[in-house]
Design a protein that fits this description.
With about 80 residues, this protein is mainly α. It has four helices and no strands.
Length: about 80
Amino acid sequence: MVIFQDKQVRTLYNLARDPGEILISNDQKVAIQLLGLLAQEGNSDARGALTALLRSPDLHPMLREMVAAEVGVPIRV
């Protein structure tokens, strides 16, 4: 279990990672974008959340690509 001090980051992380979603929701996309913005502003919890999402084995592949773009790393196929 990943724990973040920043409540906003924790909420966005949980929303982005929601394993109950079969299809990608707009909320998940927005959560990843907001985490990216927070990380760019220097929020270390947001950066950690993006890294944790990238490592999450059950994250939808398209969401993984979005996370990788926010982090600035290429996806290994």
